[in-house]
Write a structure and sequence with these properties.
single chain; alpha+beta; Uridine Diphospho-n-acetylenolpyruvylglucosamine Reductase, domain 3; 2 domains; 5-stranded antiparallel β-sheet; 10 helices; 20 strands
């Protein structure tokens, strides 16, 4: 097998071979026969979560499934579909998801497994849209769990530890339009005194900073209703389209300037028709209680010179609380502090440790698909470990990453 890497190229997988089954029955046979394997999504994790010394299984070849329920409240999708394709098909049926991540090219099952998210004080992460999950467990049996089942909160954002997720049932709602506005140079004083209002002033709000000062470089607002003010909490309306990373082409980003458009063409930061190449970047992210947001910003600002030296851009977003066991938003509304680093692992890791150190007193929880160095404090990890033992008693889906996480 040719060496296989993740999207960023910082991880070379150690798998013996990669299987690409074409049916759920093939997945069941592969899983039942294997001794060690992991399921690979779109490869957008930045750590060894998906790595294995055994076999990798890609579900991208499963038949595309988009089955809308008669009541039009949920949709059943296959385990290999990506958000860009699903969103376009839902919109054609007059339906929408509640939110999307900044990049629409990621797989639904992979994003759900790692509790990946968009933004918005009223919006849960992408895993909160899951109403049902279909898993091929270690013995090859297909198990379905639905919202309300005892094991369900541990089976959604489950890091692939329970088995191969071959289908998901997702909540949907009527399609809607959004407008996207970008404002430049939000003053630090406004962040300090008006942060709750700023973060709640849109369906989805993102603050971008390079930590070169205590100001915010860009505010991205995604709103249902028009916003006509040329000034937003002291920030000024951008005079043209922007990219979050200075110097990068803005044409790769979704339309700005308040032009109304479909939900799936505004919620992501990047266009679906833009195909990202291998990312020249590394990523980390930590989630803190939303009521400690200013404390978290102050903590990072205290080491901002260290951070800025190896940073491309940082994004601050909000996520509503949920009940999922491994979610970083478990039982608390959160501010996520996301860091897009330069592609230099040796230079970045000491700074990651510094950020973890200053955020630890605030109860920070890492995004488990990104780079972190300290053992995460996850409130339901013992319950999850017990669930894993029931689904996979021999550790077929376990790897070194999960062994460290679960103990």
């Amino acid at each position: 097998m040719e060496p296989l890497t993740n999207w960023a190229g910082n991880i070379t997988f150690g798998a013996r071979q990669v299987h690409r089954p074409r049916s759920v029955d093939e997945v069941r046979d592969l899983v039942a026969a294997a001794t060690e394997l992991r399921v690979l999504g779109s490869g957008h994790s930045f750590n060894r979560l998906a790595d294995t010394g055994g076999d990798l299984v890609s579900l991208a070849g499963l038949p595309r499934t988009v089955e809308i329920a008669p009541d039009r409240r949920v949709v059943r999708v296959d385990g290999g579909i990506r958000y860009g394709e699903l969103a376009a098909r839902l919109h054609a049926e007059g339906l929408a998801l509640h939110n999307m991540a900044s990049l629409p090219h990621i797989s639904v099952a992979g994003a759900v497994a790692t509790a990946t998210h968009g933004s918005g004080v009223g919006n849960g992460n992408l895993a909160t849209a899951v109403a049902g999950v279909e898993i091929v467990r270690a013995d090859g049996e297909l198990v379905t769990l639905f919202r309300g089942d005892d094991d369900f909160p541990g089976s959604v954002a489950a890091l692939g530890a329970l088995g191969a997720v071959v289908a998901l049932t997702l909540d949907v709602q009527p399609a809607f339009e959004l407008r996207q506005y970008v404002y430049d140079n939000l003053p630090a004083a406004a962040v300090r005194s008006e942060l709750p209002e700023i973060l709640a002033d849109g369906y989805s709000v993102s603050l971008f900073t390079r930590w070169t000062s205590t100001d915010v470089d860009q505010v991205w607002l995604k709103r249902r209703d028009p916003l006509t003010a040329p000034v937003f909490h002291g920030a000024t309306l951008a005079d043209g389209p922007r990219h979050p990373v200075p110097g990068m082409p803005a044409e790769n980003c979704t339309e700005q300037g308040g032009v109304p458009g479909p939900w799936h063409e505004r919620l992501p930061h990047f266009r679906m028709e833009f195909t990202p190449s291998s990312g020249e970047e590394l990523q980390s992210e930590w989630h803190v209680p939303l009521d400690r947001a200013n404390d978290a910003i102050d903590a990072v600002a205290g080491i901002r010179e260290r951070v800025a030296d190896v940073l491309q851009v940082s994004e601050l977003r909000t996520i509503a609380a949920d009940d999922l066991w491994l979610s970083p938003n478990h039982q608390r509304d959160s501010l996520a502090l996301h860091f897009t680093w330069i592609a230099d692992t040796e230079a970045v890791l000491p700074v990651v440790a510094d950020v973890e150190r200053v955020l630890a007193p605030l109860g920070a929880r890492p995004h488990l698909g990104k780079i972190f160095t300290s053992a995460p404090a996850l409130p339901r990890v013992a319950d999850f470990a017990a669930l894993v033992r029931r689904f996979d008693p021999a550790g077929k889906f376990r790897n070194e990453f999960l062994a460290r996480l679960l103990g």
